Amino acid sequence: MPRKTVARTARLASLPLGVAGRVVGGWGKRLVGQDAAEVNAQMSAKTAEQLFAVLGQLKGGAMKFGQALSVFEAAVPDEMAAPYREALTKLQTAAPPMSTRAAHRMLAEQLGRSWRSRFREFSDEPAASASIGQVHRAIWHDGREVAVKVQYPGADEALLSDLRQLSRFSRLFQMLVPGTEIKPLLAELTARMSEELDYRHEADNQRTVAAAFDGDEHFLVPKIIASAPKVLVSEWVDGMPLASIIRDGEKELRDRVGYLLAEFHYSAPARAGMLHADPHPGNFMLVADGRMCVIDFGGVAKLPDGLPAPLGRLMRFAMEGDSEKLFETLRAEGFVPPGAKVPAEHVRAYLAPFVEPLLSEKFHFTRRWMQKQAERVGDLGGQDFRTGRSLNLPPQYLLIQRVLAGSTGILCQLDAELPAKEIVERWQPGFAA
Q: What GO molecular function terms would the record report (predicted)?
């Protein structure tokens, strides 16, 4: 992992320069008569390709940000969705590995010089990569197959450097994902980084969730075998990655996986007191017995009392079209800043489309539906854009909102049809009248 701030900044700085060059080239092509829509699609595709190539090379905070951004792929206009999707899939599943020597050095530092004695077998070839580490397949000394996550040397320096630099280029990312607030996303990722860098926090989180779902017929959370600040050993699980189901899955499979994803995100706070806060396809897979396996608990929202009841009331009031109660609850929870002069009816109109999935027994989550929401809230000349700018996102709802938006993005990638209302009724406090 390139550690030096100068080197990493230079790579990140190449992004807006590359975009600027393509804009100039695009103007030239239009002047000589090429179709404007085709030129724009070409520019967008090349921008997405360059963006995620650079983020993937840098790993660290850059790759972490790219993974967080990936769930909004469904909001990207159709003309550039295919290359964007391909670039994101690569980012979710692959990145240049660290050297074998560096991996062994980290294992010795974290597990002791005799670390090999803990394993019957250990594969030096990484099986997968993550934003701040890579995963090796191994056999523990008692014969269990395990996944060994090893943190990249210099990950801590690289993470904070990346996130500081990325905030300077937030407008570039805004172009790619209209209607998504990039700066708050970066701020939230930065705030969580100190916990994610210490794998002992992740191990504690995963132990709690694994215990809560132990023996569950629908979900599998791998058990933790051993942990250190920069090495994590857990049970190995084979399964079908969510990305392949999004790409090739039959409708029945996509609907089932969408149902399981929504069920997990809504039920985990009630069952385990935690909300999995890193919803991108690389963290979910379907195992042979039909259960959904969930991994990577470095980022969670601690919710010992479950999801907040006011959120359920907000959903209900928005569904019922009760502008006054909706506005009063938003103000009480801090969504409406003191002194803000925004009509209650405008707020209801802004939020109503977001609860559309709860108005029918089943709802079909599609890319087009998510694109419409992104276009609506991102239209600089529209009332919804002005209303959105008048509202605030309270800190206690930041992770919840990101998970809700992220998991909805995955449902739209899956093109899944499911009874969202039934899931919310069972697990969201305050929703039922």
A: ATP binding; protein kinase activity
Which pLDDT value is given to residue 207? 98
Which letter does DSSP use for residue 285 in this model? Answer: E
Q: Which string of b and e fits 122-153 if b means at least 16 CB within 10 Å?
A: beeebebbbbbbbbbbbebeeeeebbbbbbbb
Q: How far apart are CA 420 and CA 411, in angstroms?
A: 11
| Residue 418 DSSP SS3 | strand
Is residue 70 located within the same domain as residue 178? yes
Residue located via tokens 């608990």: 297
Judgement on whether residues 273 and 417 belong to the same structural domain of the protein? yes
134 and 214 co-located in one domain: yes
Model pTM score: 0.78
Task: Round to whole Å and give the CA distance between 133 and 202.
Answer: 13
User: Given the DSSP bridges, would you call strands 231-235 and 224-228 parallel, antiparallel or unpaired?
Assistant: antiparallel
Instruction: Give the helix/strand (H/E) hosting 301.
Output: strand 300-302
Q: What is the pLDDT of residue 124?
A: 95
Are 280 and 416 found together in one domain?
Answer: yes
Place of tokens 């399964």: 239
Q: How far apart are CA 218 and CA 212, in angstroms?
A: 13
Residue 338's pLDDT is what?
A: 84
**Are residues 48 and 108 located together in one domain of the fold?**
no
Tokens for 345, please give them. 């009816």
348 in the same domain as 269: yes
37 and 172 part of one domain:
yes
Per-10-residue mean pLDDT, the chain, length 433: 49 44 35 42 52 51 53 56 57 66 96 96 89 90 97 76 61 51 62 77 96 97 97 97 94 98 97 92 94 93 94 96 95 89 93 94 94 82 88 84 89 96 97 84
pLDDT value, residue 128:
84
Contact 223, 235 (CB under 8 A): yes
Give me the DSSP letters along 120-166. EEEEEEEEEE-SSEEEEEEEETTS-EEEEEEEPTTHHHHHHHHHHHH
Instruction: Work out how many domains the chain is built from and give that number.
Output: 3
pLDDT value, residue 27: 33
pLDDT at 100: 93
